[in-house]
């Protein structure tokens, strides 16, 4: 594989599980110019029509970001499940392509988390069934290539799109502090989600992130309070757009572009929950 010259060091990750006719290659590529990271899972699948039931999985685990791509094949369906878990603000874009071994594209689909990049989790499924599945079974040499490319946008990209006030915040220091604080939480607690409800709307956020940045939330979920039992917090004095901006800051140290009134509401929320980095 010859990556574009703009890419940095090429690293191999992952494992192969399943049928001998399914071969997996996985790579992690850092783009030094675009401040992005690419994760590539490429499967070469032979004797497709004879595969009864098989699966293969590639994964990447590194500080603050876990990524897993799972392929399953049976007599009725080809399924790709992409799952990413992360503590920081990341925009995740996925592209799944199926092509013949000569390079002709048979299937292509893209999806991303641009609508909710602060949820700390991204999961989606691509399923090939029906006519598309039959086309794969009718290929002359019974072989095809499936590629899943995951693009992770770095924080530096997000800074360019956000409020200039972010330049007054040391993003690097904030993220290093967040990462260090998250190490205090392990096991099931670090994976739990909290529902923050405002009226009929709900914002889902990682519990460890909440507790590591806010002493109010830490006390709330550390004691036998109602919120501790059902992982749900009802909020009546903060608007949902303000709450979402607050959650975005907790995860990334970044603020959205906003007017003075919005900043005043955000200041109130930061003061209420003891988020001093934002309050100051």
TrEMBL record:
InterPro entries per the record? BTB/POZ_dom, SKP1/BTB/POZ_sf
Every copy of the BTB domain together lies at 192-253
Q: Which domain of life is it from?
A: Eukaryota
Q: Which Gene3D superfamilies match?
A: Potassium Channel Kv1.1, Chain A
SUPFAM superfamilies, per database record: POZ domain
- CDD domains xref list: BTB_POZ_ZBTB_KLHL-like (cd18186)
Q: Which Pfam families match?
A: BTB
Q: What PROSITE patterns does the annotation carry?
A: BTB
Q: Which PANTHER family match?
A: SPECKLE-TYPE POZ PROTEIN
Q: What is this protein called?
A: BTB domain-containing protein
Organism, by scientific name, is Araneus ventricosus
């Amino acid at each position: 594989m010859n990556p574009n010259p703009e890419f940095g060091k090429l690293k191999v990750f992952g494992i192969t599980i399943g049928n001998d006719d399914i071969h997996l290659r996985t790579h992690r590529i850092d783009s030094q110019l675009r401040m992005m990271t690419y994760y590539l899972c490429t499967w070469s699948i032979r004797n497709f029509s004879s595969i009864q039931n098989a699966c293969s999985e590639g994964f990447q685990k590194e500080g603050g970001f876990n990524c897993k791509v799972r392929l399953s094949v049976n007599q009725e369906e080809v399924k790709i499940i992409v799952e990413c878990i992360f503590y920081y603000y990341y925009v995740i874009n996925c592209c799944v392509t199926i092509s013949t071994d000569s390079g002709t594209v048979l299937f292509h689909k893209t999806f991303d988390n641009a609508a909710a990049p602060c949820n700390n989790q991204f999961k989606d499924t691509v399923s090939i069934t029906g006519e598309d599945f039959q086309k794969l079974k009718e290929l002359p040499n019974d072989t095809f290539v499936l590629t899943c490319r995951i693009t992770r946008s770095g924080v530096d990209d997000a800074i360019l799109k956000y409020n200039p006030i972010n330049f007054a915040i040391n993003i690097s220091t904030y993220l290093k502090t967040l990462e260090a604080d998250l190490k205090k939480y392990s096991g099931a607690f670090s994976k739990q989600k909290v529902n923050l409800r405002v009226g009929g709307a709900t914002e889902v956020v990682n519990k460890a992130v909440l507790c590591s940045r806010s002493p109010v939330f830490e006390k709330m979920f550390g004691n036998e309070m109602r919120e501790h039992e059902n992982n749900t917090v009802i909020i009546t004095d903060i608007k949902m757009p303000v709450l979402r901006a607050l959650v975005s800051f907790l995860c990334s140290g970044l603020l959205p572009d906003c007017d003075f009134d919005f900043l005043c509401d955000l200041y109130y929320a930061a003061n209420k929950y003891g988020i001093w980095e934002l309050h100051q």
